Amino acid sequence: MNYALTASNNFISFPIPTGNISQFQESNISFKVNRNNMSSGTYYSQMFLNINNKLDTIQVKIENFKEQKLHFKQILLMLNIRKRDIIVYIS
């Protein structure tokens, strides 16, 4: 039996998108999720599995979380109030 895998968008890719499986043989099918262009949130995709010209659709839900970091440069302020030096350090 011949098979082919495709996806509805570019979030999902298949290292081996086509192949052949003999009768009563098992095979693992793997896929990769490309998160490079995704921001945090929920995304939906579909995987289409075509086995001997019979199409099946698999719904995929992707929960993506991108950690957001803020970087501050160290700031040093020196203020002269009532003849005392006050140093404020913000990191």
List descriptors.
91 residues; mainly beta; 4-stranded antiparallel β-sheet; 8 strands; 0% helix; elongated
Gross geometry: elongated
| Proportion of residues in helical segments | under 10%
SSE succession: EEEEEEEE
Radius of gyration: 27 Å
Q: Tell me what portion of residues adopts beta-strand conformation.
A: over 45%
Give the count of helical stretches.
0
Give a structural overview.
The chain has no helices and eight strands. By secondary structure, the protein is mainly beta. It has one domain. The chain is elongated, with a radius of gyration of 27 Å. It starts with a strand and ends with a strand.
Brief overview, please?
With 91 residues, the protein is mostly beta strands. Helix content is 0%, strand content 54%. A hairpin with a 2-residue loop joins strand 5 and strand 6.
What is this structure's SSE topology?
Layout: E1 2-7, E2 12-13, E3 18-20, E4 32-33, E5 41-51, E6 54-64, E7 75-81, E8 84-90
Antiparallel strand pairs: 1-3, 1-5, 2-4, 5-6, 7-8
